[in-house]
Amino acid sequence: MEAPNPVSENSDSKSSRTRQRILKAAAGIFRQQGYTSASLREIAESAGMQAGSLYYHFDSKEDLAEAVMDEGVAAARRSAEQALAALGGGEDALSAIEAAFRGHLAYLLEESDFAVATLRMLHQTPEAIRKRHTRKQRQFGQFYAGLFKQARRDGLIRDDFDLSALRMLLLGALNWSPEWFDEGRLTAEQLVHQLSMMMRNGLMPPRLRVVPGAATAR
Amino acid sequence: MEAPNPVSENSDSKSSRTRQRILKAAAGIFRQQGYTSASLREIAESAGMQAGSLYYHFDSKEDLAEAVMDEGVAAARRSAEQALAALGGGEDALSAIEAAFRGHLAYLLEESDFAVATLRMLHQTPEAIRKRHTRKQRQFGQFYAGLFKQARRDGLIRDDFDLSALRMLLLGALNWSPEWFDEGRLTAEQLVHQLSMMMRNGLMPPRLRVVPGAATAR
């Protein structure tokens, strides 16, 4: 095998950095304006480059929109998986869910343009893009579904919970947070800790808790 | 006092019905297309009327967009308050929150166009509209803040919860549900019941629960 060519390696990583810069600028513009009114010219300007150079990386606005949405899901998932891997494997299945939430939320709040732009533009993009992207979101959902199933197998989630509804409610709490989160008050970690306390023990002091079924029947 | 004029009463209620029909059509179009690309002509068509007649009720697209967003918040709040009032007043403060959630979610899922359209277009509307509407959303938030404060005063929410973060997480779970809810599987009521079980007792079977602090410290 040959040694890697340092020139092409450098230009590859430069190209990848430029691509990331464009994606970030595009996420900001799409977040503000939605898909339909955003222009490639404005996105190029916000990325500090000529519109012509942008075409070297992305063929069209559609292409760029899809890349922004896909990057948002892929990076959120990487962040969730890294936080999970950092636990080292000896944790219980609820701790695994909490770690994934922590990584996921840290990304959502740090790079909120991607999540909010996706929410605003998904239904404005052409159907083929929407379908492909929705499939990727669903794959990320399956990652979580696996964690929830494990928690149930381990006896950590009661039988009266519908696993799929529970997962979507908790992910909704996470996904909504870029809309209101105020960095000054809490960190992403403290926010996940709030969810986590509720998941483990509910809201009430121990002396008030009763056997499920009695408290929750109607 | 004179008896009400039956002619003008009828035409008032006819006018109000037409207004509602336009709002509903507009919510559907804004949901699909966002604010910028939606046209009054299309909205009129979807409401089964001429664009000219639409102008009798709304001055402009801006005016109509604001009315759609405001109606979404106002109707969600009415639905939450009605569900709360129906309890009759003898309930504990967590049951009050759950009832408000139930009414709120029933509306969100039944008239999901309003919630989803608002989410998609709020940041595309002119700043003055956005500010006025955000104030109305915040007033609705204050309604919930009052219920959460009462629950804490009554000792039903532990001190280690940040009331504002908790409220926003739970409302996020609610607000996100029109994005994924599938009517075939669960009713709105069953969905709120899942949240409610988690709020009261957490996810775990009673035998596994430990004193908060021990379980949740890191």
Question: Biggest sheet of chain A, in brief?
Answer: none
CATH hierarchy class name of the domain at 61-208 in chain A: Mainly Alpha
CATH superfamily of the domain at 61-208 in chain A: Tetracycline Repressor, domain 2
Structural class of chain A: mainly alpha
Any idea of the CATH topology of the domain at 61-208 in chain A? Tetracycline Repressor, domain 2
The level of helicity of chain A is over 70%
What's a quick, concise take on this entry?
The structure is a homodimer of 218-residue chains. Chain A has 218 residues and is mostly helical. Helices cover 71% and strands 0% of the residues of chain A.
Structure description:
The structure is a homodimer of 218-residue chains. The radius of gyration of chain A is 21 Å and the shape is elongated. Chain A is built from nine helices and no strands. Chain A has a domain at 61-208: Orthogonal Bundle (Tetracycline Repressor, domain 2), CATH 1.10.357. With 218 residues, the first copy, chain A, is an all-alpha fold. Chains A and B meet through helix 1, helix 6, helix 8 and helix 9 of A and helix 1, helix 6, helix 8 and helix 9 of B.
